[in-house]
Design a protein that fits this description.
Blueprint lengths: L3 E6 L3 H12 L4 E7 L2 H10 L4 E4 L8 H11 L4 E5 L6 H10 L3 E4 L6 H20 L38 E6 L3 H10 L7 E6 L5 H12 L3 E4 L10 E4 L5 E7 L2 E7 L11 H11 L4 E5 L8 H9 L3 E5 L9 H7 L5 E3 L1 H17 L1
Parallel strand pairs: 1-2, 1-3, 3-4, 4-5, 6-7, 6-12, 7-9, 8-9, 12-13, 13-14
Antiparallel strand pairs: 10-11
Helix pairs in contact: 3-4, 6-11, 8-9, 9-10
């Protein structure tokens, strides 16, 4: 299989060298070149078109957002934005997603061995996801991944879920990755104001989830917020797992709430969909509905199966409407999905499933 050709665009020579070392540590990736600003990048693209571009936001002569808009309007190429992220800069990152960036990744810092290794995993996986995304004209038929931790690292599996008692409330658990920001917007805008409580894992960097949640809160009928530890899961509200933290559903009596916690990368992600889905299977059981959306890899596939085995209804997004048909496809292959439907029909399907459960 031909290696994925990557062009690095960043004004820092140190960052260009660091990213080159990180990317070339993966045998499936080849750094075809590096450019200190968008003008040099444009010249390189004229002679050789990369499969993926990694792009900084703040650069001289032309900022990354302007370059991104030009790329997407003139010659679409999958772009992974790799930027220093602060709480003040997250709106810029949200703009990058709106302009067509496939992924947003935190620029690696030389702090600890663990941070460097997690950055390597995330950056290489983001490049592979970008190479598979539908914006690209040529896709790669197979992407292999390194060994990874399962949800066992955060929440041990139990053979018999403990919360099978029927309640009057349903919980909807949703997982998404590449392409999920747009998919979640479409899904949440389709949910009625009195919908069941929703818990969501979207693979996204720290700080970005708050801006993402705030933006959705402004355009959806329901309330959307970044989850905080011990937040109640209530009707008419969606809780989004904060970046770089796992989120688990818990139950105390009739009350559902979330636990936000640290932990290792699970399926190469933190937050992990599998962690959320397993906790939902355990504490909500047949009171739940699980939805898995667009994304690379298999995070959430086994968790969705655990939800189904616990009595939950389950939905997977279909291939045609996915940006990357990875996570839903893996769930489908496991037999974890009751329904396989287009993105624009998922909200209505969930509402129908809720009505059937709550009226039975």
């Amino acid at each position: 299989m031909r290696r994925i050709k990557v062009l690095i665009v960043d004004d820092s020579a140190v960052v260009r060298q660091t990213l080159t070392t990180i990317l070339e540590s993966d045998s499936q990736i080849e750094v075809m070149g590096a450019a200190s600003d968008p003008f040099f990048a444009a010249k390189k693209i004229q002679s050789e078109v990369p499969d993926v571009i990694t792009l900084d936001i703040e650069m001289p002569r032309m900022d990354g957002l302007t370059f991104l808009k030009k790329i997407m309007s003139q010659h679409p190429i999958p772009v992974v934005v790799i930027s220093s992220l602060t709480s003040e800069g997250t709106e810029t990152g949200m703009k990058a997603l709106e302009y067509g960036a496939v992924e947003i990744i935190t620029k690696p810092q030389m702090n600890t061995k663990q941070f460097i290794e997690e950055s390597r995993i995330r950056i290489c996986d983001a490049v592979k996801a970008a190479a598979l995304s539908k914006i690209k004209r040529k896709t790669y038929s197979e992407i292999t991944v390194a060994p990874k931790l399962s949800a066992d690292a955060v929440i041990p599996i139990v053979k018999a879920p403990t919360a099978m008692i029927k309640t009057t409330e349903t919980v909807v658990a949703v997982g998404a990755s590449t392409g999920g920001t747009e998919a979640l917007q479409i899904f949440l805008q389709g949910m009625p104001i009195d919908c069941p409580g929703i818990v969501i894992v979207q693979h996204m960097p720290e700080f970005f989830t708050r801006s993402f949640a705030n933006r959705l809160n402004e355009i959806c009928k329901i309330t959307v917020k970044e989850a905080e530890n011990n937040d109640s899961v209530i009707r008419g509200r969606a809780l989004i797992a904060p970046g770089n933290h796992h989120m688990l559903l818990k139950r105390s009596g009739a009350r559902y709430y979330v636990e936000v916690k640290d932990g290792p990368l699970v399926n190469r992600h933190r937050p992990s969909v599998d962690v959320l889905f397993r906790s939902t299977a355990r504490y909500a059981g047949n009171n739940a509905i699980g939805v898995i959306m667009t994304g690379m890899g298999d995070d959430g596939a086994r968790g969705l199966l655990e939800m189904k085995e616990a009595g939950a209804s389950t939905v997977a997004q279909d291939e045609k409407s996915c940006v990357v048909f990875g996570m839903p496809n893996e769930a489908i292959k496991l037999g974890a999905a009751d329904k396989i439907i287009p993105l624009d029909q998922i909200a209505a399907q969930v509402v129908k499933m809720v009505a059937l459960r709550e009226n039975s």
